[in-house]
Write a structure and sequence with these properties.
Helices cover 29% and strands 24% of the residues. By secondary structure, the chain is of the alpha/beta class. The chain has 2 domains: 168 residues, Medium-chain alcohol dehydrogenases, catalytic domain (Quinone Oxidoreductase, Chain A, domain 1); 137 residues, NAD(P)-binding Rossmann-like Domain (Rossmann fold), CATH 3.40.50. The protein starts with a strand and ends with a strand.
Length: 333
């Protein structure tokens, strides 16, 4: 079977596909034939060496495929079931803890950039009805992050106002989830073409942040005092504007570091606005199951920008670097 591994010296140019023996599932495990994965910023940091991982680690947190064999004691799945990975394979339910989030798929434990692998029967969920493998593979990280930010932590209600930033995977999913829930959507982007696509997906007002560097204040004014929910993706580059855009008593989900790992806070503004700020790192299997149930009802479909083959993983990350994509980049194998 084909497998990708991260080996030293780590770089996007040294990503290669090699052959390995097919594993056999142990007690409580299932053998999955992975069919697709999708790129996340976390995967990019693993692949380029910014996040140090064990030599020989198999990358990619997202995966969708088929159950092709089951080990002794498996009761949750049968051969032929279509499944997808979980970002934290040991976080099944409840609040996050150090023990539950220690294992990270494609980081501290092997990921989905392999044709076949054995995983615990508990570390998977079903894929949505009538989804392709590529569509399902976009969900475990990006979609669940947006779901948790808005529905679980944000407690989104119909009629709420939401600000999404950019047009990457999490932002596009957040737009779709919020729109399906009956929210009014503000969005930011750097391109008129992407602004048009965001509008087509349901954004009610789109701001080009290159043309309006004070977009946070602009959105605060347009929304008559600020929005209820903000999904901040840029850290240092966006957080000050996100705070400006939020209403008094609003909720800011910190979900990305695209603009830097650190950020300065104007504490008096945080206090005076009485903001609630939550660091979001994906979610649990229970949350993922709830999201799938909602997708089956709402009919949300992922926006896939481009597909690559397993041997093209390095090229896929190079494309991700350009920032030209809208929605998700997938790998199919």
């Amino acid at each position: 079977m084909r497998v990708v591994s991260i080996n030293k010296p780590v770089s996007l140019d040294t990503i290669t596909v090699t052959d390995a023996l097919e594993p056999t599932p142990g007690r409580g495990e299932i053998l999955v034939r992975w069919r697709a994965s999708s790129l996340n910023y976390h995967d990019y940091l693993v692949a380029n060496g910014s996040l140090a991982v064990e030599d020989g680690r198999i990358p990619m947190s997202d995966g969708a495929g088929d159950v092709i064999a089951t080990g002794e004691g498996v009761s949750k799945w049968q051969v032929g079931d279509k499944v997808m990975s979980t970002f934290f394979p040991n976080w099944l339910e409840g609040q996050a803890t150090k023990a539950k989030t220690r294992a990270v798929t494609g980081d501290t434990v092997n990921g989905c950039a392999v044709e076949k692998s054995c995983v615990s029967q508990d570390s998977l969920t079903a894929i949505p009805l009538n989804y392709s493998y590529a569509e399902a593979a976009t969900l475990p990280c990006a979609a669940l992050t947006a779901w948790r930010a808005l529905i679980v932590e944000g407690r989104l209600q119909a009629g709420d106002t939401v600000l999404i930033e950019g047009s990457g995977g999490v932002s596009v999913f957040a737009l779709q989830i919020a729109k399906a829930a009956g929210a009014y959507i503000y969005a930011t982007t750097s391109s008129d073409h992407k602004a048009e696509r965001l509008t087509q997906l349901g954004a009610d007002k789109v701001i080009n942040y290159k043309n309006d560097p004070k977009w946070g204040a602009t959105i605060n004014k347009l929304s008559d005092g600020g929005v209820d929910h903000v999904l901040d993706i840029g850290g240092h580059a966006t957080l000050a504007s996100s705070i400006n855009a939020a209403r008094v008593g609003g909720h800011i989900s910190l979900i990305g570091v695209l603009g830097g790992f650190t950020a300065e806070l104007m504490l008096p503004k945080m206090f005076s606005k009485q903001l609630r700020m939550t660091g979001i790192s994906v979610g649990s299997a229970d949350m993922q199951n709830a999201m799938v149930k909602a997708i089956n009802t709402s009919g949300i479909r992922p926006v896939i920008d481009r597909s690559f083959g397993l041997e093209e993983l390095g090229a896929a990350f190079r494309y991700q670097e350009t920032g030209q994509h809208f929605g998700k980049i997938v790998i199919e194998y």
